[in-house]
C-alpha cells in the first residue's frame, strides 16, 4: 500500500476499530437493502411473496457468508478479531479446566526449565557480575604455555606492560581471589575477598556507597597500603551497618586494615561462583598469598586479570595486539617469558573461576531442556488434537456459516498463544524460584559465600518470549492438520468407530507419542550415563585413604602467631594428638588434595635429565610434615618418609611420585639423586604411589613433596587418622588445641570422603539436574502414552465390545491395549536409541570412565522406559477389558 | 458456493471501477449494471459484489458515502477516487494488451 492508499484506508480502519458495531450495522443495512430491492423486483415479476424472498436469498447466496467475506475484505480487524479470539479461547479453556490445567502445567514445566537454564546462562556465564558496567566488552586475560593444556596466569610486571601497551583496551584491571581468616569464638572461617589493582572500582563502574574506592598508587609498593573496601553484606552483618565505619580498622590475616569504603548492595565482585566480602589493593599481596612478595617478580604468576575493549574493537583485533605484546615480552624477558603467549577469553570461558567448571553442565542442560520443551509441546499438541477432534463439529459449523479457514487458523493460534503465554508466565515464575538452585546443589565449605544466581533480565525475557512464540506455533499448528482435512460433511457422518491396533487417522497422535518416547529415552540414557559416571568417580580411589582420615586446620595466622611460635605449636599439637586414644597418626600438609587451594609450582632441574629445547619442566609440589603418607595411607614404594629431623637445619630432601620417576628418571630408582627446587638442590629420599591431586578425573602427573619445615607455611591443614567418629574426634582435637592456647579457633572438620565428594560436586549438579529433567520427561511421555491409549480405547469401544461378544476375554483386551502401547514405545525407543547414540557424545566432558555408548546404560534405560509404558497402558487396558458388549453394541 | 475464478475476480474489480467511472452508484445499481453490460456471461453473483466493493474501498480506489437515494432512503453510494481512476487506466491498458495478445493467438490458430 502506498501513502495515498493509506490516506483513504486509515480512517476506515480506525472507524472499524473504534465503532465496530456501527460499521457492521451499516454493512448489514446495505445488504438488507439489496435483498429488499431484489424481493421487490421479484414480486414485480409476479412471484408470490414467499418465493420472491426465497429466490432473492438464493441469488445472494448465504447472507452470513457474504457478511463474513465483507468483514474480511475490510482487511478484517486484526486487533478486534484477536481480542475476540482471546476472549473466546479463554472461555474455551475455562470450559475444560482439567485439560487447560494439564496443558498449562506441561508448558510451565517445559518453558520453566528453559527459562531457568537461560537465566543461569545469563547470570553465570554471560552477565555474571551484577552492577559491573559493559560486561559485553569484558574479557579475561590469561597466559598460555606450549605443551600445557590449561592456561596459566600472568605476573604483575607482565600485567603492567600489557596495560601500558594495549591501546585497544579501554581498561585493564586485576581481581585475584584470595581469602582471609576471621575468627568467631572457637571457630575459624575463611572469608573470600579479592586482591585488586587500584583502578578496580573505577574500571568496573561500581562506586562505594560509603567512603571511596582505591586511589592510583595504592597498588604500588610492598605492604604499603593496608586499606580495604568491604562488601555491603559484611558491613550489614559484621558491622551492623555502622555509618561511621570509614576509617575504622579490621584485621585481615592478622594485618590491621583501614576500611576506606563499603561496596553497594548487590555487588558481589568479579569471580563467578563466589560473593566477595572484601577488596584489598595489590600492594598487600604478601599478606594474602603465600610465596613471598611477587610484585617485582616476572616469574611469579598469580594475576587474574580482565580487560575491557574499546567500543567497536573485536576480540580478534585485540587478541592480535595482545599477542604482539606477548611476543615482545618473550623477546625482552626470555628467562621468564619464553614460549608464553597471552590470550583473551570471553567471560563465560574465564579459565580462573567456576564458570569453566559449570560450562559443560550448562551446555548439556541447554540440549536437555530443549528436549523437555519438545516433549511438553508434543503432549500439549496431543491434548489439543483430542480437543480438535471433539471440536470438529464446532469447527465445521463455523466453516459452514462462513468462517474462512484462515480465520479458524487464527483462532487456533490464539488459543495456542493463550496456553503458551500462561505457560510462559508459569515458566518465569519457575525460573525465578530456581534462580539459586545451583548454589543449593553445590556443597559449600563453612563460611564460604557461594553466589551462582540465575538472572532474569531483558535478554532472558526476550528468550522466554521467543520460546513462547515457538511453542504457540508448534502447539497451535498441530490441530491445524485436523482442520485442514475438515470438510463440511464430516460432522454429519456418524462418529466413525476406530479400531485398536490399526494404524490410520491416529497416525499423528501416535507419531507424537513415538517422538516423546524417543526424546525421553535420550534423556534417560543421558541421566543414566551421568549417574554411572558419578558412581565411577566416587568409587575411584583417589590414591589415599578416605574412610578413616579427617581434616581440619588451626587458625594461627589470624591469631597473630609468627613463624617460630607456629612451628612450636605445630610440633606440640602433633605430639598431643598422637597420644589421643583412637588416633593412629596425625600430620600437617600445606594443601589438601582435591581442594580449592593451589599447590606451589616450581621449575625443576633433574640430575641426568636433559630437557628438550623448548621444554622448561615445571612440577607442582606440596609441603608436608612427618608421617603424612602413613596418615593419608599413600603407599611408599621405596626410600623413607620425612621425619622430625628433616628440618630447616638439615639438607633439603624431597619425595617424588611414580609418574615423576617414569618421566624424569626413566623408571630407575631415584633415591639419592638430586632435584633442583626453586634454585636449591634437594636429594630424593623416597618414592610414593601416584594419587589424585586436583581432581578425581585427572590423569597421573608428576608430583613431589618437600618437608614443611624446609618450605614453611604458618597455617597448614591437619590430617588425623582415627577410628573415632567425627564428632568425638572433633571434641578431642578442640580440647587439645585449647590446652595449648585457649583462644585458638578451629576450621571446619570433615572426612576426606567428604572432601572427595565436594570435589565432584559439578558432576553431582549435572546428575541431579539431568536426572530430574529425565524423570520429568519420562512422566510427560507416560502421560502422553496414557492419553493416546485412553483415547484409542474410548474411540473403539464398539470394536472392543464386538471382540468381547465374539469370545475375547478381558485378558485378551488388556493384552491388545498393552501390546499396542508397547509397539508405540518400541518405535520410540528405536528412534531414541539412534538419536541417543549421536547425542550422548555431548556428555563427553562430563563422563568419567564411561563410554557414551555404554550398552548396560542403554539396556537400563530400555527397561525403565518399557516398564513405564506398561504402567501407562494399564489403566486404559483395564478400561478396555471392562467393556460391556451389550451396552456399547446397542449404543 | 464457489468463489469466482481468479480471472473473473480481477476482472470484477475492473468492471466495478469502470461502472463507477461513469457515475456514483449504490450496490444494487452496480449489480444491475453489471448484469446488463456483461449480459450475465460472467455470472457475477451478488454475493461476490459486496466483498469486492468493501475491498476496493479499503484499497482507496472507491469511496463510499451514505446519501439519499431516488426514493428518499439513505443508501450507500460508491464513487471513484483519483487513485481508482489511475488504477482503472492501468488495468484497462493491461487488459487491452492481454486481450490483444490472446485474440492474436486465437486468430493465429484459426488461420
Description:
Chain A is 52% helix and 15% strand. With 891 residues, chain A is an alpha+beta fold. In chain A, the strands form 4 sheets. In chain A, strands 1, 2, 3, 4, 5, 6, 7, 9, 10 and 11 form a 10-stranded mixed β-sheet that branches. In chain A, strand 6 (249-252) and strand 7 form a beta hairpin. In chain A, helix 5 (78-95) crosses helix 15 and helix 6 (97-126) runs antiparallel to helix 13. Chain A starts with a helix and ends with a helix. The model of chain A is unreliable at 490-504 (pLDDT under 50). With 111 residues, chain B is of the alpha+beta class. Chain B has a single domain (6-110), classed as Arc Repressor Mutant, subunit A (Orthogonal Bundle). Chain B has helices at 6-22, 27-38, 46-59, 82-110; strands at residues 25-26, 62-68, 74-80. Chain B is globular and about 55 Å long. The N and C termini of chain B lie far apart (40 Å). The model of chain B is unreliable at 1-7 (pLDDT under 50). The chains are: A alpha+beta (891), B alpha+beta (111). Chain A binds chain B through residues 1, 4-9, 12-13, 26-27, 29-31, 33-34, 37-38, 59-62, 65-66, 69-70, 72-75, and chain B through 1, 26-28, 31, 45-47, 50-52, 54-55, 57-60, 63, 66, 73, 75-76, 81-83.
Amino acid at each position: 500500500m502506498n501513502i495515498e492508499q493509506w490516506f483513504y484506508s486509515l480512517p476506515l480502519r480506525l472507524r472499524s476499530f473504534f465503532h465496530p458495531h456501527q460499521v457492521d450495522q451499516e454493512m448489514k443495512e446495505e445488504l438488507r437493502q439489496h435483498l429488499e430491492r431484489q424481493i421487490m423486483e421479484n414480486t414485480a415479476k409476479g412471484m408470490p411473496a414467499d418465493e420472491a424472498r426465497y429466490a432473492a436469498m438464493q441469488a445472494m447466496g448465504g447472507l452470513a457468508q457474504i457478511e463474513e467475506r465483507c468483514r474480511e475484505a475490510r482487511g478484517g480487524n486484526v486487533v478486534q478479531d484477536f481480542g475476540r479470539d482471546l476472549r473466546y479461547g479463554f472461555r474455551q479453556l475455562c470450559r475444560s479446566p482439567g485439560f487447560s490445567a494439564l496443558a498449562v502445567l506441561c508448558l510451565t514445566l517445559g518453558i520453566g526449565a528453559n527459562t531457568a537454564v537461560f537465566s543461569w546462562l545469563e547470570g553465570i556465564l554471560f552477565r555474571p557480575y551484577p552492577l559491573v558496567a559493559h560486561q559485553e566488552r569484558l574479557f579475561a586475560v590469561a597466559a598460555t604455555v606450549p605443551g600445557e593444556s590449561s592456561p596459566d596466569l600472568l605476573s604483575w610486571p607482565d600485567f603492567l606492560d600489557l596495560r601500558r601497551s594495549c591501546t585497544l583496551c579501554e581498561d585493564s584491571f586485576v581481581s585475584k581471589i584470595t581469602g582471609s581468616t576471621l575468627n568467631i569464638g572457637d571457630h575459624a572461617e575463611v572469608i573470600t575477598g579479592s586482591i585488586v589493582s587500584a583502578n578496580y572500582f573505577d574500571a568496573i563502574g561500581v562506586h562505594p556507597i560509603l567512603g571511596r574506592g582505591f586511589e592510583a598508587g595504592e597498588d604500588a609498593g610492598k605492604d604499603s597500603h593496608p586499606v580495604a573496601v568491604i562488601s555491603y553484606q559484611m558491613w550489614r552483618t559484621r558491622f551492623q551497618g555502622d555509618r561511621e565505619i570509614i576509617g575504622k580498622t579490621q584485621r585481615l590475616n592478622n594485618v590491621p586494615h583501614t576500611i576506606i569504603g563499603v561496596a553497594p548492595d548487590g555487588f558481589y565482585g568479579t569471580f563467578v561462583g563466589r560473593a566477595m566480602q572484601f577488596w584489598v589493593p595489590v600492594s598487600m599481596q604478601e599478606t594474602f598469598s603465600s610465596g613471598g612478595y611477587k610484585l617485582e617478580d616476572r616469574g611469579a604468576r598469580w594475576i587474574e586479570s580482565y580487560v575491557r575493549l574499546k567500543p567497536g574493537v573485536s576480540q580478534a583485533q585485540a587478541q592480535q595486539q595482545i599477542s604482539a605484546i606477548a611476543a615482545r615480552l618473550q623477546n625482552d624477558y626470555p628467562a621468564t617469558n619464553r614460549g608464553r603467549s597471552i590470550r583473551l577469553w570471553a567471560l563465560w570461558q574465564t579459565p580462573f573461576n567456576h564458570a569453566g567448571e559449570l560450562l559443560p553442565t550448562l551446555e548439556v542442560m541447554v540440549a536437555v531442556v530443549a528436549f523437555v520443551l519438545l516433549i511438553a509441546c508434543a503432549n500439549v499438541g496431543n491434548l489439543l488434537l483430542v480437543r480438535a477432534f471433539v471440536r470438529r463439529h464446532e469447527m465445521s459449523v463455523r466453516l459452514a456459516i462462513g468462517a474462512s479457514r484462515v480465520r479458524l487458523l487464527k483462532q487456533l493460534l490464539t488459543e495456542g498463544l493463550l496456553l503458551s503465554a500462561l505457560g510462559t508466565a508459569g515458566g518465569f515464575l519457575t525460573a525465578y524460584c530456581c534462580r539459586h538452585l545451583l548454589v543449593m546443589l553445590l556443597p559449600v565449605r563453612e563460611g564460604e559465600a557461594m553466589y551462582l544466581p540465575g538472572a532474569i533480565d531483558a535478554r532472558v525475557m526476550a528468550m522466554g518470549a521467543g520460546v513462547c512464540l515457538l511453542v504457540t506455533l508448534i502447539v497451535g499448528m498441530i490441530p491445524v492438520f485436523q482442520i485442514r482435512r475438515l470438510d463440511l460433511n464430516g460432522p454429519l457422518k456418524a462418529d466413525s468407530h476406530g479400531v485398536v491396533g490399526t494404524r490410520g487417522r491416529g497416525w499423528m497422535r501416535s507419531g507424537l507419542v513415538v517422538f516423546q518416547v524417543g526424546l525421553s529415552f535420550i534423556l534417560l540414557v543421558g541421566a543414566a550415563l551421568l549417574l554411572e559416571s558419578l558412581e565411577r568417580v566416587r568409587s575411584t580411589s583417589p590414591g589415599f585413604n578416605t574412610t578413616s582420615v579427617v581434616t581440619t586446620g588451626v587458625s594461627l595466622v589470624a591469631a597473630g602467631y609468627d613463624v617460630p611460635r607456629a612451628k612450636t605449636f605445630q610440633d606440640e599439637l602433633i605430639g598431643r594428638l598422637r597420644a589421643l586414644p583412637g588416633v593412629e597418626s596425625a600430620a600437617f600438609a600445606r594443601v589438601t588434595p582435591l581442594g580449592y587451594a593451589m599447590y606451589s609450582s616450581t621449575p625443576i632441574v633433574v640430575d641426568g635429565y636433559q630437557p628438550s629445547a623448548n621444554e622448561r619442566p615445571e612440577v607442582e609440589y606440596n609441603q608436608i610434615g612427618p608421617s603424612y603418607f602413613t596418615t593419608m595411607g599413600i603407599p611408599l614404594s621405596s626410600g623413607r618418609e620425612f621425619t622430625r629431623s628433616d628440618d630447616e637445619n638439615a639438607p633439603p630432601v624431597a619425595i617424588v611420585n611414580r609418574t615423576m620417576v617414569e618421566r624424569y628418571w626413566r623408571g630407575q630408582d631415584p633415591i639419592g639423586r638430586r632435584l633442583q627446587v626453586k634454585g636449591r638442590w634437594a636429594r630424593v629420599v623416597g618414592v610414593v604411589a601416584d594419587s589424585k591431586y586436583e581432581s578425581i578425573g585427572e590423569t597421573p602427573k608428576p608430583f613431589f613433596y618437600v618437608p614443611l619445615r624446609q618450605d614453611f607455611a604458618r597455617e597448614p591443614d591437619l590430617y588425623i587418622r582415627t577410628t573415632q567418629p567425627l564428632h568425638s574426634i572433633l571434641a578431642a582435637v578442640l580440647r587439645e588445641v585449647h590446652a595449648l592456647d585457649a583462644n585458638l579457633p578451629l576450621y571446619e572438620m570433615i572426612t576426606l570422603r567428604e572432601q572427595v565428594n565436594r570435589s565432584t560436586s559439578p558432576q553431582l549438579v549435572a546428575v541431579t539436574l539431568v536426572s530430574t529433567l529425565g524423570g520429568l520427561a519420562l512422566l510427560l511421555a507416560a502421560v502422553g502414552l496414557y492419553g493416546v491409549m485412553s483415547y484409542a480405547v474410548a474411540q473403539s469401544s464398539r470394536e472392543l465390545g464386538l471382540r468381547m461378544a465374539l469370545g475375547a476375554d478381558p485378558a485378551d483386551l488388556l493384552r491388545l491395549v498393552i501390546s499396542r502401547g508397547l509397539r508405540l514405545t518400541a518405535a520410540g525407543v528405536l528412534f531414541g536409541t539412534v538419536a541417543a547414540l549421536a547425542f550422548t557424545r555431548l556428555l563427553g566432558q562430563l563422563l568419567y570412565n564411561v563410554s557414551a555408548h555404554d550398552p548396560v546404560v542403554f539396556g537400563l534405560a530400555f527397561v525403565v522406559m518399557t516398564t513405564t509404558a506398561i504402567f501407562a497402558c494399564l489403566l486404559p487396558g483395564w478400561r478396555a477389558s471392562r467393556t460391556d458388549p451389550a451396552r456399547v453394541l446397542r449404543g | 458456493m464457489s468463489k469466482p475464478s481468479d480471472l473473473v475476480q480481477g476482472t470484477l474489480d475492473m468492471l466495478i471501477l469502470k461502472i463507477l467511472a461513469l457515475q456514483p452508484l449504490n450496490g444494487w445499481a452496480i449489480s444491475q449494471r453489471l448484469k446488463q453490460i456483461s449480459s450475465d456471461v460472467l455470472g457475477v453473483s451478488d454475493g461476490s459484489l459486496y466483498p469486492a466493493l468493501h475491498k476496493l474501498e479499503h484499497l482507496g480506489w472507491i469511496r463510499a458515502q451514505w446519501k439519499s437515494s431516488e426514493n428518499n432512503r439513505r443508501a450507500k453510494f460508491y464513487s471513484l477516487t483519483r487513485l481508482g481512476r489511475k488504477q482503472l487506466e492501468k488495468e484497462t491498458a493491461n487488459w487491452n494488451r492481454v486481450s490483444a495478445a490472446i485474440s492474436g493467438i486465437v486468430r493465429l490458430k484459426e488461420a
